[in-house]
Amino acid sequence: MISQEKINALKEKMQKLNIKEQDIIEKFILSGKKGGQKANKSHNAVYLKHIPTGIEVKCNETRERELNRFLARRLLTYKIEEKLFGTSERLKEIERIRKQKSKRKKRALEKYSL
C-alpha cells in the first residue's frame, strides 16, 4: 500500500515542522463520494485539525481509510509549511510544471505558425 520510505519521509517532515500527533484532532466521517455501498456505509474519509495553527484538512481521495489518513497528514504538512514559510515543495513543483507546460505550448505554437 504505502511504502515505508514515504511514511518515514512524512514523519521526518512532521518533526521538522514541529507537528506532534497529540496536537492533531482526527475524525473519520462518511466520504460522500462515489464508491457505492462501501463508501456510503463506512467512515473512511479523514478530517484533521491542527490545534496550534487551526488548519483543517479533509481527505476522501480513496475508499481506504489508511491511505486517506496518510494523504490527509501529507496535505496538512503542506498547508502548515505554506503558512509558516509562505511556500512549500508542493507549490514549487506546481510552478515548475506550469513553466514546463507554457514552454511546450510556445514551441507548439511556433512550430504550427510557420
Describe the structure.
The chain is built from 4 helices and 3 strands. It has helices at 4-16, 36-41, 65-85, 89-113, and strands spanning 24-29, 45-50, 55-59. It has 114 residues and is of the alpha+beta class. It has a single domain (4-87), classed as Double Stranded RNA Binding Domain (2-Layer Sandwich). The longest helix is centred in the C-terminal third of the chain and has 25 residues, at 89-113. It starts with a helix and ends with a helix. It has a 3-stranded antiparallel sheet, with helices on one face. The model has no long low-confidence stretch (mean pLDDT 89). The radius of gyration is 18 Å and the shape is extended.
What characteristics describe this protein?
extended, three-stranded antiparallel β-sheet
Largest sheet, order of strands side by side?
Answer: 1-2-3
Query: What is the number of independent domains?
Result: 1
Cα shape: extended
Query: Which structural class should the secondary elements be placed in?
Result: alpha+beta
The tally of helices reads: 4
**SSE string:** HEHEEHH
Mean pLDDT: 89
Query: What is the highest CATH level, the class?
Result: Alpha Beta
- CA distance, first residue to last residue: 49 Å
Strand content: 5-15%
Low-confidence region ranges: none
Radius of gyration: 18 Å
Biggest sheet descriptor: 3 strands, antiparallel
Fraction of residues in helix: 55-70%
| CATH third-level topology | Double Stranded RNA Binding Domain
Report the count of strand segments.
3
CATH architecture: 2-Layer Sandwich
